Structure formats: structure tokens, C-alpha cells
Amino acid sequence: MNKLRVFLVDDHAAMREGLKLLINAQPDMEVIGQAGDGRTALQRVPESRPEVVVMDISLPVLNGVQVTEGIKRLYPGVRILALTRHRDLGYLRQVMQAGASGYVLKQAAADALVGAIRTIAAGGTYLDPELASRVMNGYLGRQPSKEVSQQAELSEREVEVIRLIAWGRSNKEIAAHLGISVKTVEYHKSRAMEKLSLHSRTDIVRYAVQQGWLQDV
Asked: What pTM value is reported for the model?
């Protein structure tokens, strides 16, 4: 079995070593490189050819947002997971705009980090539940923006569905929250993605960022 290739970027050697032990203990993944600052990361990622980069945001020389932009510009297929202590939604917004596929707090459990790596490697997105809940609590009760709906002629229900998808909720969870069937959720999701020319959950998250749905509430 080919193992998932993971690259670590963190300015604390002890943190990198702990992450390496955790990831290498998994049967389906391995750490194939690491860096302690942003510039070194940009130099070593092309040599290591990782599938996933686990990266702190606060880095010396170049910060995590700058490194994410650089990697995604040159190697768009590499998936990036931000791992940070920052609970500020501003950081989340910046790194997702830069091209990251996930955001995990360092305070999260080890199995959450491992699960996040697997999720983004498979093409999905992952947002730390603590941050997703904060944003959802502030936005789900609001009326969808008329500007957003008119821009792509989305229905109010379509806006509700893609917002929930952007925050990592499954079709089953969305159906339960909105009081509709899973098939209806899938229909609204498909229609919204077609109207917006989106092709994946990552595209949906980035669209949500552009619409300002990651603003602090």
C-alpha cells in the first residue's frame, strides 16, 4: 500500500517531532520532510513532493499564508492543512483564501488531526468544529444576502445548503437541521454548484470565504 506523503512545517522542533511520531504511527501515512520556517518550506516541498502539507500559520521569514499561496501557485495539487493555536476567524479566512483545504487547532485531539489529514487528502475540506460552530451560530439564523442570491440567481434554500456544506456539515446533518430529506439537500447542492460553476467542497468553502461568511460574529 502506498502511504500518504506528509510534509511538516512548524518553527518548533519539538512540535514537529511530536507530529512526526503521530503521523508515522498511522498505517496509511508517513512524514517525508519537514521545515522550520516558510522559506525553507518553499524550497523543500518541491524536492519532497508531498501530497499533504501540515503547516503552522505563525512562521519566521515567511508566514503560513504566504507559504500556502506560494505552494498552491506552483503546485496546485498539494493539499494544505493549517495547524495553529489561533482561534481568530481572521486567520482562518486568510489561509483559506490562500488555498488551504483545512484548518485545525493545535489544541484538538490527535485523532482529529489524523482525520483532517485523511479528509483533505481525499479531496475534502476540514474546519475545526470549534470555529465552524462559532460561525454557524452567528450566521444560520440570518436571512441570506439578497446580493448573493441575485448574483448567481440562487434560491434562499440553495444559499442555506452551501453555507452548511462550507462549514463541514454532511448531507444528513444538513437535512436534519433544515427539516428536509437528504435527496433534497443533494438536489439543492447540485443546483447551486452548477449555477456557481463549483466542482468540489473546496470550491464551496472558497466561495463562502469570498462572500464574507468567515467574518467574526
From this structure: 0.68
Architecture of domain 134-210: 3-Layer(aba) Sandwich (3.40)
> Which CATH number describes the domain made up of 4-127?
3.40.50.2300
Burial class (CB in 10 A: 0-12, 13-18, 19+), 106: middle
Angstrom distances, CA of residue 142 to CA of 146, 152, 163, 178 = 12, 19, 12, 14
Domain map (residue ranges) of the chain: 4-127, 134-210
Q: Render pLDDT for 29-69 as a digit per residue (tens, 0 to 9).
A: 999 999 999 999 999 998 999 999 999 998 988 899 999 99
Distance from C-alpha of 44 to C-alpha of 48, rounded to nearest angstrom: 6
Q: How many CB atoms lie within 10 A of CB 61?
A: 14
